[in-house]
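Lab meeting, item 3. Inverse folding demo.
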């Protein structure tokens, strides 16, 4: 069986230490640790983690050891993220949120997982992101929260 490649954004890592989200973020980390899923990370996450508390940085460092694929930002990802901006899907202040979507799309991640319900895990936004993705020749990207993805508690 093919292991699902899951792109996570920084909110999932930080969620390991948030009372509301810890159970599910840590469940997903256990899934990565156990080889149930393969984590996809990016240099965008790496940059965002740089200012995070030490415990969040530790989880990120551990994630890299779980057969993680670390993505670099290339022209095709920037082109998609720019298009999300042009279409007004996200404001310029949230460019990196679009870059997470674009990176996951370009590498054909099986899923993108996030706790960002304002800009990423929202039905209306997902439809708009995927309309652009399809127009640019990519497939639709599945976007969920960790609670919907982790095998924890099942």
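The presenter then showed the designed sequence:
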């Amino acid at each position: 069986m093919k292991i699902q490649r899951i792109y996570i954004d920084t909110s999932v890592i930080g969620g390991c230490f948030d009372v509301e989200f810890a159970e599910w973020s840590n469940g997903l980390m256990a899934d990565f640790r156990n080889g149930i899923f393969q984590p996809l990370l990016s240099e965008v996450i790496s940059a965002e983690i740089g200012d995070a508390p030490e415990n969040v940085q530790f989880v990120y460092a551990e994630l890299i050891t779980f057969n993680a694929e670390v993505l670099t930002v290339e022209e095709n990802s920037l082109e998609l993220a720019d298009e999300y901006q042009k279409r007004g899907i996200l404001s310029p202040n949230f460019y990196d949120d679009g870059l997470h979507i674009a990176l996951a799309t370009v590498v054909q991640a099986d899923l993108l997982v996030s706790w960002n319900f304002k800009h990423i895990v929202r039905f209306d936004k997902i439809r708009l992101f995927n309309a652009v993705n399809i127009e640019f020749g990519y497939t639709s990207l599945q976007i969920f929260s960790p609670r919907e993805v982790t095998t924890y508690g099942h």
